[in-house]
Amino acid sequence: MPPPKDVVKIAIQMVGAIPQLIELQQTKPLSAVLKDVCDAWSLPNAEHYALQYVDGRQTYITESNRREIKNGSILRLTTSPDQEAERLYSGIQSKNVDVKTDSLKKLASLSQDVTFAQEFISRNGLKQIYSIVEEGNDTGEMLAHTLKAFTELMEHDFVSWENLSTVFIKKIVSYVNMNAVDASIQQLSLSILENMVPTSRLLFELVKKEVTLDRLLTHLQVTNAHLQLKAMALLIALLLTATDAERRDMMDYLRQKNIRQFIHKNIIHSSEPLGDEMAHYLYVLQSVSLNLCEHRMRTSMDPYSQEQRELLQSLRQTAFESESEVPASNFSTERRRSLCAKEFRKLGFMNNSNPAEDLRRAPPGLLALDNMVYFSRNTPNAYSRFVLENSSREDKHECPFARSSIQLTLILCEILHVGEPCSETAQAFYPMFFGQDHFFEELFCICIQLVNKTWKEMRATQEDFDKVMQVVREQITRTLALKPTSLELFKTRVNALNYSEILKLRQTERLHQEETLAVPVLELQERLKPELLELIRQQRLLHLCEGTLFRKISSRRRQDKLWYCRLSPNHKVLHYGDVEEGVNSPPIESLTEKIPVADMKMLLVGKECPHTKEKSSGKQNKDVLELAFSIVHDVEEYCLNFVAPTRYEFCLWTDGLNVLLGKEMTSERTQTDLDVLLSMELKLRLLDLENISIPDTPPPIPKPPSSLNFCYDFSHAEQ
């Protein structure tokens, strides 16, 4: 008979004593449990003791978290958090350097626990930490432990970052700006500043002033990958907290310092593999840079702006005035206006008498004009060739440069997510972005020539404009999916993916769709589905057994703390626990926490999860909502909360957990996988029927013959 829900069987250890095996009554006050344990070992003053997990993060057991104790847990009887906090509070004030260092080391370890942190902070312990940093000149082990302890204590959000003194902050800044200082201290200092920046405008301005972009660029050029990562984290925090104007100035300065080329060469193509955290920061840097185009994208053309009118006129002059033997200024006003309208029509503007009207639509707004001007000034030969080639074609076959440019700019903005907020978890960046200044404009230059090339391949007319732009969008999207490492490679691949290739791909996809729509094939599909769904279920469970690395995300920032979760090979227990950076597949024995599958009650996703309700509801958290899921176990208020690293992992984990709960797999990935498997299976089964049309209805069964006396008598043949 299983034990009652309010009773868990655990072991309790103490140094120098025989362990106790007890049945912990969850309804019994913790103080009474401690009294019984201490009495068994004849220990006085039970209030001076506490229980603590032996493995993992060694969290103290309190009334609030005691329900998380599982059958078979091993606990340790140790000094209570208030006693330990008092002892360490005295230890870090000791005149003995060894005692002080050991106390700070222990403090850095214990400060991860919220109960201990609360006790230490309530004794004004942070004031002592401030004093050690502000007054000390040590830059060795003692300082490293001090900064680590400070970071862990602040992580609990008991104290506001705005309470920090200017002296303390400047001291932390000095460690970042020093050359002769240990890398671990610089990493911790950069991490502290990164946490500080988003919390207050005053702190942002102070850090921005004291830690220059040049200094951060110096840290990015070191070979120490961890220091490089922390420097990038602070740079991203500064960029995300800055105003639009400040962000633009910072990005302009970084561009002058060739940060993109450096990242392309020393980070993306370094000998060290690119970690998830760095991939995320590169994605954010790409997103922030592309979003600088948003203002121009959302601004319509002002026909009364002299600067904008001059840009528009420069397009016409670059294309036509160089070839004109008589300057336009020699003509009368009427004649000049008529000539300009004619030339703007040749340029492909819909409203040739007032071309500014074409640019009133926002998006793409003035960004389309900027792209056209960039193309005309930086590749004048290609620009002139495009315009003049189409001017000499028959009217119905000319490719309108301006109209195509406006639509192409809009397509590129949609594909590159210009104007959208940065995701908190995404890691998808384009390596070629960091290999090229003026990336957006250079990409436009390649793609506008692709438009002209595709237009000719399709032998398009003005009525086919939307069809051509659809094909161009498909060419760009398919090529970007291949993640080309440079714009040159992108250009080669996108030009190789011509209209005939697109037609072949579409035809293949259409034929496949038509094949699968025949009634007999649909019936065969239905017969195959149960077997293939079982295959998908097994794959999902196998993935859970292999496990996944998850990141902890707080409401303040994307954290670099990691934990791992995996299913036991017998599919009966979920094992999980904290791991260090760089550990890809920890053994199941090292994951100290566990949840029996039998105790799992339900799966929550998205907005239903408790950890998404705690977060603010801004656009920034949209991606977290899409990747969040929770397992409710034992009783409903206890949940194990996840934020999947990718949508793919989200689908596999939610499917796998639903399988364990005996429910249907509901993710979009299930349908995709099922479609792929059905397609492969059907192709194999229908291989012999290639080029044979399958009728919708089975052929009629012929009538039975009038006489059945047509059996051959073998007995006569034997004679």
Automatic annotation (TrEMBL):
SUPFAM superfamilies, alphabetized: ARM repeat (SSF48371), PH domain-like (SSF50729)
Location of the ELMO domain: 307-480
Keywords assigned by UniProt, alphabetized: Apoptosis, Phagocytosis, SH3-binding
UniProt superkingdom: Eukaryota
Gene3D superfamilies, sorted: 6.10.250.810, Leucine-rich Repeat Variant, Pleckstrin-homology domain (PH domain)/Phosphotyrosine-binding domain (PTB)
Any single GO BP term: phagocytosis
Keyword Transcription regulation annotated: no
InterPro entries recorded: ARM-like (IPR011989), ARM-type_fold (IPR016024), ELMO_ARM (IPR024574), ELMO_dom (IPR006816), ELMO_domain-containing (IPR050868), PH-like_dom_sf (IPR011993), PH_domain (IPR001849)
UniProt signal peptide: none
Molecular function as annotated in GO: SH3 domain binding
PANTHER family documented for this protein: ENGULFMENT AND CELL MOTILITY, ENGULFMENT AND CELL MOTILITY PROTEIN 3
Biological role: Involved in cytoskeletal rearrangements required for phagocytosis of apoptotic cells and cell motility. Acts in association with DOCK1 and CRK. Was initially proposed to be required in complex with DOCK1 to activate Rac Rho small GTPases. May enhance the guanine nucleotide exchange factor (GEF) activity of DOCK1.
Protein name, entry field: ELMO3 protein
Species assigned in the record: Sapayoa aenigma (broad-billed sapayoa)
Gene designation per UniProt: Elmo3
